[in-house]
Amino acid sequence: MTTTETATFPVMFTSGGDTIAGRVHRRAESITERQPAVLVTGSWLTVKEQMADRYAAELAQRGYTAITFDFAGWGESGGGMRHAELPSRKIADVRAAAEFVSTLSFVRPGQVGYLGVCASAQYALTAAAEGAPISSYASVAGWFHDTGSVAPFYGGAEGVQLRIDRAREAFERYQRDGELVTVPAYEVGNDRAGMFFELDYYGDPARGAVPTWANEMAEVSWIPWLTFDGVARASAASVPALFVHSDGCVFPENIERLRRGLRGPVEVVWGDGEQTDFYDRPAQVSFAVDALDAHFAKTLAGSTTGVSA
């Protein structure tokens, strides 16, 4: 690779015996040039070609080697229970990704950052709290929930119980027949879908409805999703952290809980816009990337971001 244009190429690693498919985004004169690295992942039920690749392309322009990947069971990655949202598996994948990136010869030793957009932010911060080799952490429109805070999205306690009952039936069917029941990841008005309210991002092919996204969710996902605590364990993290958020994003009160509770240095940058605006809208992405660049330049020791300098 001898061009200063942003280049991409595939990589692969393993997590829990599954092959994980990733993509490197970098702008450098040579493959031998070491850069600080930032892993980038997106929302629940998504693949790397959605919000993750969008941010990776921007970070590559700033002089970072940005690496996206599909979690096990999603996209181009291997793994059984396809399209199942399994927080524990995703947390393990985050750790495996950080360990893998730490072995790459074009990454500066000890300079591995992580950007989680939306729901993967809670998985990555939990992985950091559990010792994943992440030197610097950031979230954009981070989704951090526990059962109490997520319940209103699904009609309160009754809606949560309904979905847990559906997941229990789906799991029993999987155990009995080996059949994995799937529902749409996004379908307006369908209360069996993972997301059933209007979200233009997931319905627009020019935004998030990309060809590589299957728009499917395994119905067993409801139990691990609705019972996951993305705040309590994550609060044990001591890694330098940045939260880019707004009043229009989800759970702003949980960002404040994390700001008060994290053991390491924390910066919160507040912008304007709704949750999905931060996935791909130019104004929100530009605002976020400026904050990310400043954060990673400061917290990834010795990093230089000559592209933006």
TrEMBL record:
What is the top-level taxon of the source organism?
Bacteria
Domain Xaa-Pro dipeptidyl-peptidase-like, residue spans: 32-133
Keywords from UniProt, A to Z, are: Hydrolase
The molecular function GO annotations come to: hydrolase activity
Matching Gene3D superfamilies: 1.10.10.800, alpha/beta hydrolase
Record's PANTHER family? Answer: SUPERFAMILY HYDROLASE, PUTATIVE (AFU_ORTHOLOGUE AFUA_2G16580)-RELATED (PTHR47751:SF1)
Q: What is this protein called?
A: Alpha/beta hydrolase
Species, as recorded? Phytoactinopolyspora halotolerans
